[in-house]
Amino acid sequence: MLATTLVFALGMVLFAETVVYDKLHEKYQKKSAVLVERIAADCVSPVITGRYFEITMLLQDIRKMDADVAYAFVVNQDGRALAHTFAKGAPRELLQANPVAPTQQFSDTMVLTDKGPVHDIAVPLMQGQLGAVHVGFYDAAIRKDIRTIVLLIVLFSAFMLLAGIAASIALSRALTMPLTMLAGAAEAYGRGESNHRVTIDSKDEVGDLAGIFTVMVDRRRKVEDEREKLIHELQAALTKIKTLSGLLPICASCKKIRDDTGYWSQIENYISAHSDASFSHGICPDCAQKLYPEQWQKITQKRS
Fold first, then answer.
1. pLDDT tens digits along 208-218
2. Cα of 302 vs its chain's centroid, Å
């Protein structure tokens, strides 16, 4: 945006300095030529009658009325000044700077003076039979208009530049902010953070990508929740289970078990110490019949 605006501004300034200047110069040339032709028409009679003072006063009045007029003078066929507006006499090099042919309507030549460039416009008197009228117009008048145009171009370009910068910043933020959010969420996802969500309301590709990323995060969170639940269940089961493994030395007669220290303990005491199982004592039918035959007979008679 900056480069485009600057190129546009430079191109417009160059256009103003070339094409616009040429157009304005052509316009001022025609305007000045018309003015000089009128002056030439007014000078014909005074030149014929030799009233050079009257011509001088006419030229002085024209110079006072138009600030763009640098000088004015009338020369005869031999190039000698008959009347002029110079205080110390007409410069010789200026009298010969812009000769005009009798067949020309006017002649325009750029002359360098101590006050800057001047357009010297010469119009022949009576097709050159009486000489010519020369009027110099400051080139600064055209340059002033060009500077005004250039200033307007610069101001317009500056305004467009500021507007372009503001639009570029706004557009950049609108485009990069969702991408930055998505990149941050992806980075957090890579670190294992599954609770990082992205909310992007745009309907473009970035919004679609954010929606896919959200679905992926939700699925991962669901899987992790299920895994954590399973781990907790397994840990809870392991805390309730104690497993006896290996070879247990047990007495063949009394059924006592020997521990690692060589101490013999009842089987129920050993199992209670090495597991979460507990015992409630009773008597099996075989032992009851063997140990208590009378009571066992009564119990069997009642059942029958």
1. 676 776 777 77
2. 103
Q: What is the mean pLDDT of residues 179-197?
A: 69
pTM: 0.47
pLDDT one-digit tens code per residue, 65-81: 888 888 899 988 888 88
Distances (CA, A) of 196 to 181, 215, 216, 270: 10, 12, 11, 53
Token representation of residue 260: 């690692």
- At residue 87, φ and ψ (nearest 5 deg) are -75, -35
- Residue 149's contacts (CB-CB under 8 Å, 6 or more residues apart) are 16, 20
Q: Is 71 exposed, middle or buried (0-12, 13-18, 19+ CB in 10 A)?
A: buried
Where are the domains positioned within the chain? 12-142
Which class in CATH covers the domain with range 12-142?
alpha beta
